[in-house]
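quick one: iron/sulfur cluster bound model?
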Amino acid sequence: MPSYNVAEKFVSINGEGRRAGQLAVFIRFFGCNLRCSYCDTAWAWPDAIPANGPGEQLTNDEIYQYIKQSGVQNVTLTGGEPLRQPHILPLLEQLAADPSLAVEIETNGSQPLGPVLALANRPALTVDYKLPGSGMETQMRPQDLARLDKQDVVKFVCGSQADLQRAEEVIRRLRLLGRVGVYLSPVWGQIEPAAIVEFMRQKQLNGVNLQLQMHKFIWPPDARGV
Ligand code: SF4
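yep, here:
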């Protein structure tokens, strides 16, 4: 049975996406192909479990059992980059077979979405579109965003006015509004949420949501397992 390098697993509230504020059980995988300038989970970048570090290798069944024993119905698969896990599709199929679970994947916008979109009872996707300030925009796959629908979210993490302007361009060019959830979120410590609201007001961005990183208000900004 395939196994996965899991960086941490825990129950908390969803900080983003359609179910923000609701309880969720999180599975965070090791490994990320991007290096965003503002990353707050750099400790989960390595593909392998670090010696003397956190993490454990878990099989499909062990992940499923952990989720079930938590009693929580929302499941968030995150990272790192969960879609880089070589055996993620069998895990998604196993989770999809349980109608009591609502599964969501947080993905960084650089991975092909076709295999997930083709699944029966597929999970919801929260897809980041990395803006210029991240240093990772060239890795984005905007063509895949055309295939998302109302259960999905495209999130823009903005650290500057230049990022906001680019986010607006992408939102309008890809006709995201009304088709998927669209969220603007500030880079912690780089831009005030009020500046994002002002941008939304000036540009009449109806249907766009401001999303604050709830965890950073509730717990210390560098807390893990929350
Ligand atoms: S995609 Fe996410 S985990 Fe990877 S570097 Fe960017 S912010 Fe960090």
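Helices lie at 60-70, 88-96, 114-117, 142-145, 161-173, 193-203, 214-218.
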